[in-house]
Design a protein that fits this description.
There is one protein chain. Helix 8 links the parallel strand 8 and strand 9. The chain folds into 3 domains: about 80 residues, Winged helix-like DNA-binding domain superfamily/Winged helix DNA-binding domain (Arc Repressor Mutant, subunit A, Orthogonal Bundle); about 100 residues, Periplasmic binding protein-like II (D-Maltodextrin-Binding Protein, domain 2); about 90 residues, D-Maltodextrin-Binding Protein, domain 2, CATH 3.40.190. It is an alpha/beta fold.
């Protein structure tokens, strides 16, 4: 059955006003047009809806029984078809799932959660770990917002560069390189290294840059997160290269030293990504704005 939603509005007006003329005035249509709508409603429902009793119209038992349901259905339909309605943060109740790089969760997550709770206490955030393989959760709507260094290539995924941070070398206090005035590329390559890779990859763009200089390095281990890799570097002479923004709290807490990276490499970008279905979602847009601010406050933006 193909239904005209205009009939729902007409039925609601007829039941509220109790007359064709009153319903027509309410919906700003002519009385003949409303009479035709009443005729269609009668044919669709198989009920008279309103019957004449003297000089007035009286709703049928069926009409009385469905009056509240019709009004509620119309309200729901109007809500679905009105995406531009204003957002009421005080009453918003929603759970957002965020798949962010682990370092960004540590740096920016607390600031984001604090802002969310202050403005909309009914909103909850689910930070989930990144996967070691490409996953379609963003496209399927299972993840609301991603934040990492990767720019998605799918046409239905929006990606916005919200910041960048340069790469630095991190070593333990007392590491031999801390006693060198200026670390050279050759000295950097001669050390033993640990890399960060969710997929366990032993090589990355650093190796390509070293190769152009005729240098190679020895990677002895990989770790799935920067926090884990920093712990390895803390207790050994291993070198780790990470975005500078991720080291700001770790250096003081773990007793590590930051050294300039002696290679010409572009800064590491930070992208926010979401599916295009959320472009006009006011609550999602509100969360994206708070995420940008949190990233900037944490020092991840340029």
């Amino acid at each position: 059955m193909q239904l005209d939603l205009n009939l729902l509005a007409a039925l609601d007006a007829l039941l509220e006003e109790g007359s064709v003329a009153g319903a027509a005035a309410r919906l700003h249509v002519t009385a003949p047009a409303m009479s035709r709508s009443l005729g269609r409603i009668r044919r669709t429902t198989g009920d008279q809806i309103l019957v004449r009793t003297g000089r007035t119209m009286t709703p049928t038992p069926y009409a009385i029984a469905v009056r509240a349901q019709v009004h509620e259905l119309l309200h729901q339909v109007q809500g679905v078809l009105a995406p531009s309605r204003e957002l009421d943060l005080a009453t918003l109740e929603r759970t957002f799932t965020l798949r962010w790089h682990d370092s960004l969760v540590a740096l920016c997550g607390p600031a984001l959660l604090s802002a969310v709770r202050e403005q909309s206490p009914g909103v909850r955030l689910r930070f989930v770990a990144e996967s070691s393989i490409a996953t379609p959760e963003l496209r399927r709507g299972e993840v609301d917002l991603e934040a990492n260094a990767n720019r998605p290539g799918a046409p239905d995924i929006r990606a916005e560069k919200v910041g960048e941070t340069r790469l630095v070398v991190v070593v333990r206090q007392g590491h031999p390189l801390t006693r060198v005035g200026t670390v050279t590329a050759a000295q950097y390559a001669a050390g033993e290294h640990i890399t960060v890779s969710r997929r366990g990859s032993l090589g990355n763009a650093l190796d390509d840059a070293l190769d152009q200089l005729g240098l190679t390095r020895r990677v002895v281990a990989t770790a799935p997160t920067e926090a884990a890799a920093l712990e390895f570097a803390r207790g050994s002479d291993l070198l780790i290269c990470v975005p500078e923004a991720t080291t700001r709290s770790a250096v003081a807490d773990l007793g590590l030293v930051v050294l300039p990276l002696p290679l010409e490499l572009p800064s590491a970008p930070v992208y926010l990504s979401w599916h295009q279905r959320y472009d006009t979602d006011h609550a999602h847009a509100w969360l994206r704005a708070l995420a940008r601010t949190a990233l900037a406050t944490a020092g991840a933006s340029a």
